[in-house]
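User: Batch of two.

Assistant: Item 1 of 2:
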Amino acid sequence: MSKLFEILQKIQTKPGMYIGRASVSDLFHFLVGFKTALRELGVEATKEEMDFYREFQPWIQKKYHVSTSNSWAKIIMLPCGSEQEGFNAFYRLLDEFKMRNKSLGGDELDKIATDENTQIVA
């Protein structure tokens, strides 16, 4: 498992221990610092982590039908009444995000990735 998803799992069960309170905004800031620290230490991101770093923001924007430069945390907060609600929504959305391509088989995903890379190069 990736370091990112390991720490996210820990934060979900004990947010107070890692970020002070169950807050999507605090979680966002923690993750920005976490990513920076790993990069500074020369720890390479896994394929899953790079998918999250590159695709979660645009996926959230598409899901909420917004085009903005605001963070995914601020977008998630739009329909939420509290930081706690936003925190809980983040984890529901993260599960959905991680499952978004699971209906396709592994070979089909590889073909899509290859086709996309071919289109980019062509």
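Item 2 of 2:
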Amino acid sequence: MNSDSDLQIAGDILEVPHLLQPPREHPSTVAEFVGLARSVAADRAQWEHLVEYDATTRWYHRLRTGPGYEVWLLSWVPGQGSGLHDHGRSSGVLTVLDGTLTERTERGTRALGAGAQRVFAPGYVHEVVNDTLEPAISLHVYFPGLTEMPMHTACARRTGSEAVDAVTA
């Protein structure tokens, strides 16, 4: 009877370098961008001290860039909104860090509380507003980096692009 196990014969496959995927320095898939947003959101020490509130306009700060993407931090005082817009050729991940934001699209309105994430494709038309009496903070990842934000004046146009919930906590 042969007493050699597969491990004894072949060795531990997890230790064979050519079989392992090298870790990526930067995200390149939608799931990896969602993961990036989650990891930045979880590391409050990285962004919390940067937040400012401006009663006259939405405050924003670019936290990070990488090959083909940008990470932005935004604050929203009560009543502030983005206006109806899309993100040109950029896809994105919107993550609410604190407070509650309202997203309006032609399909309806939804409240996004802390931890909620939305993933959207190029051409997705929406408006984001702080309809509450408390300030809110959000994180936005755009890939490729945001180069345009066309504003819309009428109802959101139908593009076939849908946003999806990545995670609603």
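Strands lie at 59-66, 69-76, 91-98, 100-105, 108-113, 117-120, 127-129, 136-143, 164-165.
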